[in-house]
Amino acid sequence: MKNHLLSLGAGILIGLLYATLGVHSPAPPVIALTGLLGMLAGERVASPIRRIALRRARPAD
C-alpha cells in the first residue's frame, strides 16, 4: 500500500509541475486508462476462478 501512495504522490507532483509549466501530460486518454483498469479487474477475478476450476479438475488421490 505504501508503494501505491508513493506512486500517487509522485504522479500528483509531476502533474502540478506540468500544470505550472503549461505542458500537456503525455498520459493516455482516460478511456484507455479505464480499459486498463478493466483488464486488471478481470485478471483479479479470473485468477481465483481458474484455481478453483483446476482444483476440481484434478483427480483425487
Question: Can you offer a commentary on this structure?
Answer:
This protein is elongated. With 61 residues, the protein is mainly α. The longest helix has 28 residues, at 30-57. The chain has one domain. The protein has two helices and no strands. The model has no long low-confidence stretch (mean pLDDT 89).
Short note summarizing the structure:
The chain is mostly helical. The chain has helices at 2-21, 30-57. It is elongated, with a radius of gyration of 20 Å.
Question: Any chance you could write out the topology, listing elements then pairs?
Answer:
Layout: H1 2-21, H2 30-57
What keyword list fits this structure?
single chain; 61 residues; mainly alpha; 2 helices
Strand-residue fraction?
Answer: under 5%
Global morphology = elongated
Distance between the first and last residues' Cα: 40 Å
Rg (C-alpha, Å): 20 Å
Number of domains: 1
Helix count from the secondary structure assignment: 2
Decide which structural class fits the backbone: mainly alpha
Would you report the number of β strands?
Answer: 0
